Amino acid sequence: MGTSRARDLPDAASGGGATTPLSTPDLGIRETTGPAGNIRASRTAWAVLVLVIGAVAVGARAYLLRYARLTGEGTYDDGVHFAGSLALVMGRLPYRDFLFLHPPMILLALAPFAGLAQVTSEGFAFSAARVAWMLLGAFNAIAVARLLRPLGLLSAVVGGLAYALYFPAAYAESTTMLEGLANTFLLASLLLLTRGRSRARLVWAGVLLGLVPAVKIWGILLVLIVLGWVWARRGVRPFLAVLLAAAGSCAAVLVPFFAVAPEQMWKMVVAAQLGRPDVTNQPIEARVWEMLGLSGAPPSAPLAWAVATVAVVVAALALWRARAFELTWLAVALLLATVGMLLVTPSFYTHYPAVMAVPFAVTMGSMVTLAPSRGRRLRWAGALALLPVVIAWGMAQDLHDAQSYTGQDIRFTALAGAVDVPGCVTSDDPGPLIELNIFGRNLRRGCPLWIDLTGHYYTDDIGAGLSRPKNPVFQRSAMGYLSGGEVAIVGRQPPLYYLSAANRRIVRGWPVLATSGFYQARRVS
Questions:
Q1: What is the per-residue pLDDT across 408-445, written as a single tens digit (0 to 9) for each?
Q2: Could you give the CA distance from residue 42 to residue 36 in angstroms, rounded to a whole number?
Q3: Which of 94, 358, 363, 427 could cross-link 100 (Cys pair, CB 3.0–4.6 Å)?
Q4: Which whole-number Å values give the CA distances from 358 to 145, 222, 254, 363, 490, in the listed order?
């Protein structure tokens, strides 16, 4: 793969530079040939870069599962997504037949693996899906590098590795979470938008862009910003082509499910999200710390704000120095929008900042153009740009082990004998049901279909503001489900946190049949 003809970025010293048009028109993408980045990516260098970035991305994501491996406890949400896809493949529909709090694209994307479970085992298919999501993470990191390649090889390295090592992205893509899939659709769309002006490219870019909010509803914000960027760069007709294609693909995913259960889908996907209470009680500086890729609580609030200030300054300087690179403008716009959204959203979890991974990484790659004009000093600047990313990632990995579900050595095999019963098995986490290969068995036996027990809280008395233990509607629902089987598996941490004190006493009175880590199989009595 050779490098294309390109235009120089403006020289910081001279204030400008001679430019020549791109051989293939695009959205202002330029490859540096002057003093701001005199580095050419040969075919061999680019191939090595792709392999290295892909390997680092997969390695970072696999690292997060090094104890649980591929068959242990996940993040809870990953099990919800896979269980929902299993139910869909087995003839149940989300919203109508079971609660699902997100658009259905993730269920469709996981359907091939859910189908694989029908001929192998649920645990094996879930493991295969986790591997596929790690590969999605590798694609995403490589795609970021490809978007930055016009700025030179060093920018591509910085941006690609920034995505590969950004902790929220690595966390979300270590298993079947929403954010990695949404980022894949966004990046694939941007790759098409920045590689030509043909109508076919615009349409396909729009199709992929429309799938972003079909994964997670807040993707609407990203779509609007990208559409505005296309309008500003291309004009009305290309904008309309992308808009109509995006609307069509999004509708193709959502409308069939909405037609079957309009009221339930609206309540779960829209009303429940807008009415979410703040259940994390996290100070703003803690959110900022995690958005910077640093897991865990910040050592101090002033330190968190100081690091955030540095990040804002770097983003502003990157935008100014790489102002001729149109993608940097889009990246900063997306970054500001996603940061603002994450600061005001009622709930906040470790994987949420993965939504800003793409603009974060592109901004990091653009930062290399801040370097002086000498090649040696440019390489030093690139090294300094990479250093905080690597340090942040390393710190986050160590902190993650003590806090994350993915660090637990729990494979549920000790529970196998206890769940070998003729009746139904309930669980406060769908993960054990999947790994023990009994989720489908429950469905075939006509057992209640609850893939997200604690998620029912968001649809029970929306806006009431009551915590789970104090919400009588949720308490009746949760206990009705858990006590509706012959055996109940409980293990969500902290233990039974979602139940009232009275209901915790009831569940703890059920005899323990088997234990795996902090998961217990109890005989319902």
A1: 557 788 899 999 999 999 999 999 999 999 999 999 99
A2: 18
A3: 94
A4: 11, 11, 25, 9, 37
What value does the CA radius of gyration of the chain take, rounded to a whole number of Å? 24
Percent of the chain with pLDDT over 90: 52
Locus of tokens 């005199």: 38
State the Cα–Cα distance between residues 157 and 51, nearest whole angstrom.
11
Residue 376 has pLDDT above 70, yes or no: no
Query: CB 121: neighbour CB atoms within 10 A?
Result: 16
C-alpha span between 236 and 231 (Å, rounded): 6
Neighbours of 23 (CB within 10 A): 8
Residue 48 vs residue 36, higher pLDDT: 48
Tell me the C-alpha distance between 47 and 63, whole Å.
Answer: 24
From the list 48, 51, 50, 42, the residue with the least C-alpha distance to 2 is 42
pLDDT greater than 90 at residue 338: yes
β-bridge partners, 489: 427, 521
- Tell me the two tokens of residue 497: 């946190």
Q: What is the largest CA-CA distance in the chain?
A: 81
Its pTM stands at 0.86
Measured over the CA atoms of residue 142, residue 208, residue 225 and residue 323, the dihedral's sign is positive
Looking at residue 165, its amino acid is: L
Residue reference for tokens 């003809």 = 5
Burial zone of 124 (CB within 10 Å; 0-12 exposed, 13-18 middle, 19+ buried): middle
Q: Are strands 519-523 and 512-516 parallel, antiparallel or unpaired?
A: antiparallel
Phi, psi of 517 (to 5 degrees): 65, -130
